[in-house]
Amino acid sequence: MTREIMIAPSILAADFARLGEEIAAIDTAGADWIHCDVMDGHFVPNISFGADVIKAIRPTTKKIFDVHLMIAPVDPYLEAFAKAGADVITIHAEAGPHLDRSLQAIRALGKKAGVSLCPATPESAIAYVLDRIDLVLVMTVNPGFGGQSFLESQLEKIERIKAMIGDRPIRLEVDGGVTRDNAAAVAAAGADTLVAGSAVFRGKSVAEYAANIQAIRMAAETGRVTKLQDNSTQPLRVSEAGRIR
Ligand SMILES: O=C(CO)[C@@H](O)[C@H](O)COP(=O)(O)O
């Protein structure tokens, strides 16, 4: 099944001092989803923000809030993120202790459930939870920091997961080091939802963010890479409300 490409800028790369304005800017610039990276300094070696920040920024946009929890344990915090306004809650297969139970809890809270795999984790980790998920997130860097280089080794894993998904209504999201230069390969491997932090938030203006988002989208949709100086000429196309489909 071919799905519409969604671009999900990671606000980890935004200016935190102006977070609300930055989210409004990427909304105007054509972001489909808003990707929120939650880090606990335990599961990953960095601390970002928690449910209170998500609650505070929720009113700045109507776009889907795609919340990626890089935390362990996760179960005690699911309700807080659901109440804060997350639409999709993605947890790590490695975070434990009981992936199946946590995924059921996310759906019981009325949210879309996602599962993420670190680069060293094989796709077999999700074999028995496919009926419990709405999204798989393949990490193409080791989680914890923005601005790292894309791990090419993960392309094969994306292809394998795409085959496992088959016709199931599950989105295949890729996160880490995604740029206009590798977006075509990522989409060709089977990804339909592309997270990008540094590659979107480079520049300062809404126009620059829009050009960055459009260049990633064009590469993913057409397989053609847009050169940096060319992208201001590309028409801006925003998908309809960034719905999950
Ligand atoms: O979850 C993570 C990192 O742990 C990602 O969402 C990165 O924040 C993406 O940033 P770039 O690699 O695109 O700069």
List the helices and strands and how they pair.
Elements: E1 6-9, H1 19-28, E2 33-39, H2 51-57, E3 64-70, H3 78-84, E4 88-92, H4 99-108, E5 112-117, E6 135-139, H5 154-165, E7 171-175, H6 183-189, E8 193-196, H7 198-201, H8 206-222
Parallel strand pairs: 1-8, 2-3, 3-4, 4-5, 5-6, 6-7, 7-8
The structure holds 5-O-phosphono-D-xylulose.
Q: Provide the β-strand percentage band.
A: 15-25%
Name the CATH superfamily assignment.
Aldolase class I
Q: And the CATH topology? A: TIM Barrel
CATH A-level architecture:
Alpha-Beta Barrel
Describe the structure.
- This protein has a single domain (6-233), classed as TIM Barrel, CATH 3.20.20.70.
- 30% of the residues lie in helices and 18% in strands.
- It contains eight helices and eight strands.
- The chain has helices at residues 19-28, 51-57, 78-84, 99-108, 154-165, 183-189, 198-201, 206-222, and strands at 6-9, 33-39, 64-70, 88-92, 112-117, 135-139, 171-175, 193-196.
- The chain has an eight-stranded parallel β-sheet.
- Helix 2 (51-57) packs parallel to helix 3 and helix 6 crosses helix 8.
- The chain is globular and about 45 Å long.
- The model is unreliable at 230-245 (pLDDT under 50).
- The structure holds 5-O-phosphono-D-xylulose.
- One of its GO terms (biological process) is pentose-phosphate shunt.
- GO terms for molecular function: D-ribulose-phosphate 3-epimerase activity; metal ion binding.
